[in-house]
Amino acid sequence: MFDLDRWEEIWQTISRNRKRSIMTAFGVFWGIFMLTIMLGAGLGLKNALFSQLGDMSVNSCFFWGGRTSIPYKGLPSGRYWQFENEDLVAIKKQVPNVRSVGSVIWGSEYKFSRNDKKGDYSLVNPNDHVNFGQSTNDVFPSCGKMAALKLISNAQEQLKRLETALMDKSKEFDAVIKMGRTQLQDAVPIRLGQEFHAYASAIRRDIKRFDNAKEEIRCLNLGGTAIGTGLNADVQYFHRVVKNMSTLTGEELVQSYDMIDATQNLDSYASVSGIVKNCAVNLSKMCNDLRLMSSGPRTGFGEINLPARQNGSSSMPGMINPVIPEVVNQVAFNIIGNDMTITMAAEAGQLELNAFEPIIFYNLFESLETLASAVNTLVDNCIVGITANEEHCRKQVENSIGVITAICPYVGYETAANIAKEALRTGRQVRDLILEKGLMDEKQLNTVLNPYTMTEPGILGKDPMDQLR
Questions:
Q1: What is the pLDDT of residues 72-111, one digit of tens each?
Q2: Element spanning 104, H or E
Q3: Which residue out of 60, 294, 313, 400 is catalytically annotated?
Q4: Catalytic residue check, 313
Q5: How many angstroms separate the CA atoms of 372 and 377, rounded?
């Protein structure tokens, strides 16, 4: 049913350029899974080598075949194994101090002697004993989900750091008034601190979505064996293995209420990938804003300064590029592409199994890991070092015709529009034109055109109680 040679070839191909950390995370959970079976389920250990493997070279000092690849000294002390009764009798004859409960033995160490035949599976068979009651179809996805849970938690921690850094900047820049823009055109004033607060709110939403991602992926089909029916899985193993995995990993893992559904349908991965993609979209949009607001320094927006991290050009001295936001943009582009791959792979399943989990895990792990790394460098190498050009922002507000919007309730839209056109044509300030035409007195105009109050709700210069009537 499972061609390991072919599997290893495929896995090596897609993993050639993979970062070691992801493979390590996956390997750790595979190892934890095997330990769980021994300690908790009481029914054997998952062996990654299957019947199609064939012969492998084994050090001459060991007296077992290639399929038993892990160099045991025998039965590790304190480990559970399950055997048929006749095998148990044979083992008891050779292993000292072995204890048994039914067909489950608790063995002390046994050192093979020179009289043991290399490759003899009469006592311990890798298929009948070691691989007892398990299938790649439930083990592999369960390991993948547990690895993804750890990566989700790591990404979430980095996002929390980002939220905190953005909130700190929102307080620092609360008094900095600048022009808001829609379609890149002057709109109405806004505080720079409000913009950073909005970024923090978006990230806070993403953090909550990551909690939903954990809920999607903590359901395991472990115990479902080949297609989710649980054939050949001991009943005790079936009911205990996920609970023991929760204990060992510290994660709140649950067994799926419908194991057949959990084995054949991979929509949970598509959902998690979508959540990661949404976060990438928010991050990329925020970094677009940072690049725009820092553009210049003299002929662009020039509203903020990003920390200089490298020379921007080998041919243009003095140029400093927004390299950290650009890194985040590129990570986001890749995550969006990964999401499409994961979506198509989740859709491509047939009947009782989806054969495309390897590419799903490869891309999901990459998305989660690169997202966390991108956020980490964004916080440390960009956000915390941003400064504001407060005076430049103030002058832009004063020279903008966008402030005319606050005058509309007093003079009407048409009159306000004509003043805006005249200010744009002549280069004069809106304030001067309004006073010149006698449309408002100076005291009232100063109240209405107060840049800070323009960033709050209400009709400026009118009694709030009058506005409620």
A1: 334 443 333 444 455 545 554 554 444 443 334 333 334 4
A2: strand 104-107
A3: 313
A4: yes
A5: 9
